[in-house]
Amino acid sequence: MSAWPRSIPPLELTALYRDKVNKTVYLGPTEFPDPTLSEPRAHVIQVCAVALTHGELDWPTTHDRPIPGYEYSGYVVSAPAHSPFTPGLQVYGHTSFDCLGNARPYTLALFQELCIQPTHLSWEQCANVPLGALTAFQALFDHGLLERPAHTDHWTPINKRCLPESNLQKLTLITGASGEVGAWAVQLAARAGAGHIVATCPASDVPFVRSLAAAHEVLDEAAEGNLERWARSKFHIVLDCVGGATLRAAWRVVHAEGRIISVATPAICEKPPRGVSPGVTTGWFIVTAAQNELELIATLLNYGLLRAPLDGDNVFDMEDYERALERLRSGSRGKVVLRVNMRDPRPVIELLKEYGSIESDNDWLADGADDDMDDGDDDDDSDLDDLVLDGEEEEEEEQMGAATGLQPPPPPPPPPPAVLERVEPPERMDQGNPLAIPIHTVGVDQ
């Protein structure tokens, strides 16, 4: 007998799909996800917001009807037994590229794909964080040459005695510093105490990168000879977020025994035949869901040590997906974010409790699920709409809150004006991945 309540009344849900053949995107009906059909240890998440990144709609997939959007923010509405992520918690994260995306009202996420979201950010801002921030983090500290500070309270250049001494000697170059990964990279490098950070970006984005207060120098990436004066001193670490000619030029300014990583295309593919210092190494990796890293990023955001930049013009309702995709294809800086399901999660949480939730006597991290659980009452013909709280029925809402022990979810805080200020789109967008691999993937050390 399945542990999942298969007798839940049908819910009218809509997801965003992409047609692989016609290269189009459309809204269509979807089902409430059943973790027992794919991964019994998965949590069911009510998706409040989802982010779409440049080039994502062209990524290869094995699904017949792929759903885009791999980073999300929302509520846990059902969890495996003994999971610390209990129903009602506000979470954010990103899910595997091998699975369906999260542009749907309810999705599935494993333990390592979940994290308590930053406390002062809106749903839209939280959804915009995971992939860009994790890619930058892993590129700099897991595959680059920067050392990760030992403790959370050491991530600040104010007290340099707490920072890794090796970082203070590092010259760091970050290209495409205004993009989805670059904007996080300059901030993380600065908070980890990188000695000198040079950031390049389109001329129209120079004020934005300077506003991050992270790079020591911000240069127009199109200016002739903007890196020539570094031809002698050179950089110990180069993180390229552009590819093409920018990446080829970056190879020539890497210090001997230095390291160059690109998240736009494998750096080795753009290595010039001459002018490269001896001993320069490179690598290619696929960004992975790392809960401890996402927790650290949330902490730094809560401390105000990182900013979560999101242009307010890049936020849309999912029903307005056509305008959102036009914005994404226009070369706007950063991703677009879709509001998906902003409803009160308590009715669905109560519905899952009534019909039986995933429970197991085994540890929830163990393989498999308990097959001996009751399915719940199969005779209830109620529909989700019968349980949705009417905003005018205040007494009923208070009684439900008292009965469930869940507090009404607070309204999303207004985005900080400095983060969501309107900016003009750049003259160009980061170059696409010629290998048809997600721009967030970078692999095996060369």
TrEMBL record:
GO cellular component assignments: mitochondrion
Pfam families: ADH_zinc_N_2
Comp. bias (Acidic residues): 361-399
Biased composition, class Basic and acidic residues, residue ranges: 421-430
Biased composition (Pro residues): 407-418
Gene Ontology molecular function terms on file: oxidoreductase activity
Coiled-coil stretches noted in the UniProt entry, renumbered to this chain: none
Enoyl reductase (ER) domain boundaries: 20-338
Annotated region (Disordered), positions in chain: 361-446
Protein name as annotated: Enoyl reductase (ER) domain-containing protein
Organism: Podospora didyma
